[in-house]
Amino acid sequence: MTDAPFFPRFKPLGLEDRALIAERLRAYQPETSELTFTNLFIWRRHYGLEWSLSGDMLLLACAPENEHPFCLPPIGPAPRRETVRELLSWLREARQAPAPFIARADERLVRELSGNPEFSIEPQREHFDYRYTSADLIQLAGRKYHGKKNHLNKFRSAYRFVYEPMTREHVPACLEFQDTWCNCNRCEDDMNLMHEWDAVKEVLGAFDQLGVQGGVIVVEGVVEAFTLGELLNNETAVVHIEKANARIPGLYSVINQQFCEHAWSSVPFINREQDLGDNGLRQAKLSYHPDRLVEKYVIRLAADS
Fold it and tell me: Is the pTM here over 0.70, yes or no?
């Protein structure tokens, strides 16, 4: 068990913090994809993530390199207005943030602050999560999924493959596959892809400790796709990582469908995270017909807007 820091003292996030933080997140039952311990952990270096406790609240502060510091929404019971105000003041005074803000705030927090003129609240469309029904992603039924079903059927007829739940034994092959994927996609020329590669190495390196679920597609004895996810709340799983050999037609459709069928058929919904403003990724996510977009917002003091 970790020694918990209390606000205004913060501690860098580590694996030793998993039990305490995961318990707080479970109690909150989040809908936004950021709020799992795994997601916070694998992106902790990129965001310079630290945490603290304040009464019933879990506080998460970020200091990305060459960017202004910010906080994620405080995690805990309502009301949180005073905590939001305190965090924004702390960012300005302790972290010298010129225009302090809370990013990726969910609709629950926005409703708590609604009508209060001291806060400015704006949607962050590039961070909206895409949520789907598990049944849609598994069955791919109806005309709207006709193309996806065709990809699946063509793959099945063209390749001998097997889906396997990921275990520790798959990790070396997945790391090798990711190296190959990055070479093919020139990750070294794209900082976003490099940061993602770091996150993949983090989650695979701590696969057992994080308690995530994964799946691999093995084609002719070779791992050609893998994916990783976990429960976000009691009714929703979140998919953090999904990689496939793009030279094999239909493989992304296959790993998506197979993972949902084998790992998540018992939960009603699947969150496949955000598109980060990438138009190609946005169109790909929309093509699976989400049942809703999980909206996120940025919160500032109105005087700073």
Answer: yes
**Which segments within 48-192 are labelled E, that is strand?**
50-54, 57-62, 70-71, 101-105, 119-123, 129-133, 161-165
Looking at the fold, whether 183 and 269 belong to one and the same domain comes out as yes
Helix (H) or strand (E) run with residue 134 in it = helix 134-139
Q: What is the pLDDT of residues 1-10, one digit of tens each?
A: 568 999 999 9
Is the torsion defined by CA of 214, 33, 270, 192 positive or negative?
Answer: negative
Q: Do 188 and 97 belong to one domain?
A: no
End-to-end CA distance of the chain: 41
Same domain, 265 and 138: yes
- Ranges assigned E (strand) in 205-294: 213-219, 222-233, 236-244, 269-271, 292-294
Token reading at 113: 């602050």
Q: Phi then psi for 35, rounded to 5 degrees?
A: -90, 60
Residue 28's domain spans which residues? 11-128+296-304
What is the C-alpha separation between 287 and 111, in angstroms, rounded?
A: 30
- Residue 121 and residue 35 share a domain: yes
Determine, yes or no, domain membership for 243.
yes
Q: What is the number of domains present in the chain?
A: 2
Token match 């390199």: residue? 65
pLDDT in tens, 85-101: 999 999 999 999 999 99
CA-based torsion, 272, 23, 76, 120: positive or negative:
negative
Q: Note whether 180 and 80 are same-domain residues.
A: no
CA nearest to 212, candidates 200, 224, 223, 225: 200
If phi over 0 gives left and psi between -120 and 50 gives alpha, with beta otherwise, what is residue 162? beta
Average pLDDT score over residue span 271-284: 96
pLDDT band of residue 134 (cuts 50, 70, 90) is: very high
Determine the pLDDT at residue 66: 87
